[in-house]
Specification:
This protein is mainly β. It has 7 helices and 33 strands. The structure holds copper (II) ion.
């Protein structure tokens, strides 16, 4: 029995992915993550404190977690283009950590990657300039070799950027009323109901995938009352490794924004495929329907299990129930942003990256010495090289437009580049879906090449390089990561 056959057999015999719906009765309320709204002005340093906590995900058990200003996960921070956020990031978790601002166009020395370690008990105080357009970003641990475990345990939060256009746009924008931030994760809860994270060599190969969906720290399904009108969902796939195929129970998803900002116009999609690390904003029309639900397909069609199972296994993550209150009465805007098609002819440099599940035996011991963490699995690599903190893999000239071509030796991987947004020219050899044709910082690849058009406008010197890596966090920790400078 090979690896894939084993997975199919074990999934089918235990029905691990089918237990969620049948064990739930009344949905829990959607937790609305507390927001730190800085758009009105910043008159003090903004504290973020990383610390251990305990958290009940809704099953009555007390789980050991990590959090940022909270027992589990961090706040939603809202800031505006043109501001500089003076963060004080205090690390009290009892271990070294970092906080990376995923999606931000910022210089390498404040990027929060593995070179900006925060020792236990110390404070990191970056001034983070917000120069880009309205977009949903996030922040999470990026401690090399420990990213997967620390992020899974709760070191992750959301950073919403607004600009003049987004603040005046005719869109739902009342936080917690018709504008919701959803942090989606998959977890495993042990027999005592406590969150668990255990790695075997097999699990390492695929990345850690849980059997239970969690929304904003509560076990799905969760429910939320909403007023009559359009409702906006800003969705983050914060899973370590699981791709999420999302759809609505009734009707389509109206996608208005991707990782790096608004699409040029809304895209209607039957479903969207979100890799770990991706963000999409969608509108749900609650003008003429009493209830609807956001659902994820845990059966087949997405991620590692693509094409392996015949049927769908649609699981509700969030139920929306309409009240008589009048909400956002506007319509879906015709135009959201002025976004020209990407011009591949602008590129003056082309680079190629192969994401590799296996490296030669001679490199495995070296990879461990370079602080890659692979459990008992062999090391992983990009272009034959496992991650090494004191090796610069690529040097980029500031202001250049480049094409990055990404391929894989096996499986499906999501690829992330720090310090930029890019446009996808092709994804696994095909045109990307319409909802993925705007600004992105994630692209995935399984077959052939994925190609992105990217321009780097900020500096990353040799002592503070940017990362590019697989966003399956176990793969990243295991060496499927490289570094580049921009000068
Ligand atoms: Cu990977």
């Amino acid at each position: 029995m090979n690896r894939r056959q084993f997975l199919i057999a074990s999934a089918a015999s235990t029905s691990a992915f089918g237990t969620i719906a049948v064990t739930q009765t009344a949905p829990r309320p959607l937790p609305v993550i507390p927001i730190t709204d800085l758009t009105g002005g910043i008159n003090m340093r903004v504290p973020l404190t990383l610390a251990p906590g305990t958290h009940d995900f809704g099953n009555g058990a007390v789980s050991q977690t990590l959090g940022i200003n909270h027992n589990y996960l961090g706040p939603v921070i809202r800031a505006k283009q043109g501001q500089t956020i003076p963060f004080d990031v205090t690390n009290n978790i009892g271990d070294v950590s970092t906080i990376h601002w995923h999606g931000l166009h910022i210089p390498g020395d404040v990027d929060g990657g593995p070179h900006q370690e925060i020792a236990d008990g110390s404070v990191w105080s970056p001034d983070v300039p917000i120069v880009q357009h309205a977009s949903m970003n996030w922040f999470h641990s990026h401690m090399h070799g420990k990213t997967a475990q620390q992020t899974y345990n709760g070191l992750a939060g959301v950073l919403l950027i607004e600009d003049d256009a987004s603040l005046s746009a005719d869109l739902p924008k009342t936080y917690g009323v018709d504008d919701f931030t959803l942090v989606l994760q998959d977890k495993i809860f042990n027999a005592s109901g406590r969150m668990s994270y255990e790695l075997t060599a097999e699990v390492f190969e695929d990345g850690f995938e849980g059997d239970t969906m969690v929304v904003n720290g509560a076990i799905a399904p969760v429910s939320q009352n909403v007023p009559t009108g359009l409702v906006r969902l800003r969705i983050l796939n914060a899973c370590n490794a699981r791709f999420l195929e999302l759809s609505m129970r009734t009707g389509t998803l109206t996608v208005i924004a991707s990782d790096g900002g608004f699409l040029s116009s809304a895209v209607e999609a039957e479903s969207i495929l979100m890799s770990p690390g991706e963000r999409y904003e969608v509108l749900v029309d609650m003008r003429n329907i009493d209830t609807n639900a956001l659902q994820v397909n845990l059966g087949g069609g997405a991620g590692l299990f693509a094409g392996l199972f015949g049927g769908d296994q649609l699981t509700t993550v969030l139920t929306l129930a309409r009240t008589a209150d009048q909400g956002f009465t506007g319509a879906i805007p015709d135009q959201l942003a002025n976004l020209a098609p990407p011009r591949a002819t602008d590129a003056t440099v082309t680079r190629s990256f192969e994401l590799q599940m296996d490296v030669g035996a001679d490199l495995v011991a070296l990879a461990m010495a370079w602080e890659n963490f692979c459990g008992n699995a062999g090391a992983m690599a990009i272009n034959g090289q496992p991650m090494k903190m004191d090796r610069i893999d690529e040097t980029v000239r500031k202001g250049d437009t480049e094409i990055w071509r990404i391929s894989v030796d096996d499986q499906l991987h999501p690829f992330h580049i720090h310090g930029c947004s890019f446009r996808i020219l092709s994804q696994s050899g095909a045109e990307p879906p319409a909802y993925a044709q705007g600004w992105k910082d994630m692209v995935h690849v399984e077959d052939g090449w994925s190609e992105v058009l990217v321009k780097f406008d900020h500096e990353a010197p040799p002592d503070a390089p940017y990362m590019y890596h697989c966003h399956i966090l176990e793969h990243e920790d295991c060496g499927m990561m490289g570094q580049f400078t921009v000068t």
